[in-house]
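Quick illustration, no need to memorize.
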Amino acid sequence: MKKNILLALAVILAAGLQTQCVKSDKHSQGQEAKIIKTETPSRPAGQEHALLMTAPKLDTVRVGFIGLGMRGPSAVERFTHIEGVKILALCDIYQQQVDSCQNILRRAGWPEATGYAGSPEAWKQLCERSDIDLVYICTDWRSHAEMALYAMERGKHVAIEVPAAMNMKDIWALIDASERTRKHCMMLENCIYDFFELTTLNMAQQGVFGEILHAEGAYIHNLDEIWELYWNNWRLDYNEQHRGDVYPTHGIGPVCQALDIHRGDKMNYLVSVDTKAVNGPATVKRLQGRESSNFKNGDHTMTMIRSEKGKTILIQHNVMTPRPYSRMYQLTGTDGFANKYPIEGYALRPKQLTGEGKLIENFSAHDFLSEKAKEALMEKYKHPILKDIEEKAKKVGGHGGMDFIMDYRLIYCLRNGLPLDMDVYDMAEWCCLTELTAISLENNSAPVEIPDFTRGAWNQVQGYRHAFAEQTGK
């Protein structure tokens, strides 16, 4: 018996040594969990962090758009409703896409922009222009980082569709370029601007939920009807070739803001698990008529994250099953709970409703607040951004208006010389799950360290807040 126990211990020890276990995280019970360490390159000499980074005010923001397929045209149209903007350049591989967006400008009464098309390298000409302040990138995931780096090196601010970078190498390159050039690098994460998320964030910042301990987010979206709309089949190909949460930003972005990530807390490590791939290979067979013997992305992927201050996050990814659309978005606090999918609602302790009077009629600790109470709370805690722009956002649209709010805030901050709502470290933290979840999965769901992308400055800013110009009175 003793011999068998020693043999078992030897096997466990050997297995532990075979994983890249070079760091320990001490838990409250005194146990140590081995963590796969990730590299944090030293900040190059002469660079400074980009926390609360500002740039000179731009009375008029001159914009060039790259990528006019699925997302680009709607972005061009939204920008025609924003004051202080000039659209000077449009670029796509296909001339007909450029022509289509020229029609958008004409219908809005705007002058035509200079068009670039006909070559996979045409976008470089746009970035090389001296009269553009902002390059807005709406291409496929694989080209985002290259284009953003090229634009920043040529003196442009960049706004990049999600995810902005698909691997750690590109993430660190974007950070270094933004820090070195002092140009903004913002990922176009629209979901942080949805009305429920903005209002709930304001409630969290006002202490309505007490201390936020746990948060959940997801991208659960059956893509069966739209796989074929992606140019050259790039999205299905990417899922076939990559394991892990390849599209994490919609889920993790809003909850990271509520948890003040790199503004008083930081994510320390993650653990990821996934199902086998069933619908992925079947989709390849259905659409392309071939077998996919090594489809890497599981039908469902789940990732748990723990922060420096003991908070937890659950992120999910599923684009393969017929589950109803969901981004989850849940906040669990010591005194309250917020939930968006499948039912929007809040649950609070009675003390959190002090002064609300009739709102706590028939109050139950086992249910969400009534619809009437929820609406009253959301009106009371309506985010200042929504007070300014909600009606126009609903009219202009873009996923119900959140896309317009995103664009409006980007231009507002650039025109007023303010820090952007999302900085380059937000981009890094939200995108890093793509590679780090794959590392965890390939190592039997081992914990993987999440780097401090600020390289030591994560605690210098206390609390996430949107910036406002003084003249707004905010």
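The domain at 192-387+419-465 is CATH 3.30.360.10 (Dihydrodipicolinate Reductase; domain 2).
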